[in-house]
């Protein structure tokens, strides 16, 4: 059985009086491309920085690949991290970056790095400061992958890229996963990108994990119920109300079926990924989440 790529229990990070992450409990299997979704300030970067070992928890517990993050040089070599601004050194050439990567990483795959740089068309002599945003992101991705990690962590890697560069980077990411069999955690606020490349989802909002799991399972287990106002007086055990919207004539519910079998309610229909994510984000912010009882008011 593979060791989970990320395990947390009541993981919390505070900066003074501000809590950036609140009691996050997660168990993410290995071999997944994980989409970490949420608005700015939700705690995504904090969770990824904790996983990379860049910061320490205020309380709670975290393990990456079965060990404490950044516990030693061997653990550091198992994780590749690309920060939000895809950092590269402006005055160094592409070749210099590859030499530096080789010097700093004992597991560096020189042939892999050279082949990938050739494939994406980056000139070895070109200074990183003169690369486009997409090219800088590709260079940072190459450096992170060429150390042959077991886990790649990306903090909003496509946020500043134009649509073509974003699509190219995500395509290359999927190719890398196939080539080197690496797990990936990718934070984004672009649901369409997550839907394109990810198979596991974590929704963060207001510093808390709202829901997590396999995307296919989550979308299959979340349903929309529509009926005359007052027709939904109660829900079966194991069916959680996520959102309720009432008009004078009609009630619309979004529910999460946590039972093992299919949801057996008249008119229930699965909802798409985007609708599901937005419902949780609205609920976290206290927007449009009346109760069942309000349908009878």
TrEMBL record:
<dbReference type="InterPro" id="IPR051782">
    <property type="entry name" value="ABC_Transporter_VariousFunc"/>
</dbReference>
<dbReference type="InterPro" id="IPR027417">
    <property type="entry name" value="P-loop_NTPase"/>
</dbReference>
<dbReference type="InterPro" id="IPR003439">
    <property type="entry name" value="ABC_transporter-like_ATP-bd"/>
</dbReference>
<keyword id="KW-0547">Nucleotide-binding</keyword>
<feature type="domain" description="ABC transporter">
    <location>
        <begin position="6"/>
        <end position="231"/>
    </location>
</feature>
<dbReference type="InterPro" id="IPR003593">
    <property type="entry name" value="AAA+_ATPase"/>
</dbReference>
<protein>
    <submittedName>
        <fullName>ABC transporter ATP-binding protein</fullName>
    </submittedName>
</protein>
<keyword id="KW-0813">Transport</keyword>
<keyword id="KW-0067">ATP-binding</keyword>
<dbReference type="GO" id="GO:0005524">
    <property type="term" value="F:ATP binding"/>
</dbReference>
<dbReference type="Pfam" id="PF00005">
    <property type="entry name" value="ABC_tran"/>
</dbReference>
